[in-house]
Amino acid sequence: xxxxxxxxxFPPIMDGVSQVxxxxxxxxxxxxxxxxxxxxxxxxxxxxxxxxxLNVPSVPMLLRPPYRIGFPIQILPPFIPAIQFMPDIMxxxxxxxxxNIALQLAKKHHIPFIITFHSKFRQDFEHSIxxxxxxxxxxxxxxxxxxxxxxxxxxxxxxxxxxxxxxxxGQVEVVPNAIDYDVDLHTLPEKKQEARTKLNLxxxxxxxFVGQLIWEKNLKFIIDALAQLHGISYKxxxxxxxxxxxxxxxxxxxxxxxxxxxxxxxxxxxxxLETYYFASDLxxxxxxxxxxxxxxxxxxxxxxxxxxxxxxxxxxxxxISYENGFLTANDATQFAAKIAELYKxxxxxxxxxxxxYKTLSLQWKDIIPEIEDRYRSLIKRNSx
Length: 384
Hints:
The chain is α/β, with parallel strands linked by helices and 384 residues long.
């Protein structure tokens, strides 16, 4: 098949969605498909992939660095390769310029078009725009992309609740996301000890957060919880980048937590990031912003269970408390109490970590054949 993958964000800009697209592209290419990724141009960056990257001219999103947004298709010159590429199927992972390009070309040339709903866009808009009628209009506009698709995919069924809130009335297909870490259980204890030594950890409880450093991820909630941990020896690592980076460091200082809490720059090298997953005991993810976070699955692949907020989209259908993770109310004091409880019970952490490994560490190599079959089926239906 000739496959077009459309997303605003792609390495060197890293987030969960760009990682999804990167894995789609790599594994579909390995299965002998002709894949092109259509994405916003990052100036001066040289791509080095065994599949095609087609760029759209872009401008920076000033309020959400390092993200960029592509020029609207209406003002793009017709000779730009990104809008000349005509695949057998188009799969968008963004409803912005990339998704618009895919939808308009798909309708014009009668190409089947899929779009996956990944993110809670309302929170993103509300961060930058403090005028509700305008935010409502923007949500209405982006949902038109989903209304125009031949199929809409979501990574887990609970995400449909968000789409309904945004006004989407159509059908969806549940196609889960997966991870690219494949950890050998036999060598894992040795790897964990090596990682803890590398990070200079002794007998401390190692806590971890990986993701965008933005307030929507409930970072302040984590700091408020950590400030209530008394008599507990721990190290906390925040790994990522985002607009809240400097304020987060200041907040850590304000609570006098700088000896225990470290902010680590975003790690684009997956092996370097894996050191933190191996070393950690608990993954802290109280985000109400995320839909189906890959980082929770990545932590699980390293036998590290997560603490999430009960009822959050991230936790629904995925986490059963005290079976493959831990849930608390949306309250920093209760979140801190959960950490303190688990600090005294390492064997429980280990048992739940093993269950998380068994239930959450779905591999991309296992899901890609299903994606491939879905593509073929849609292409076949479209040709009738």
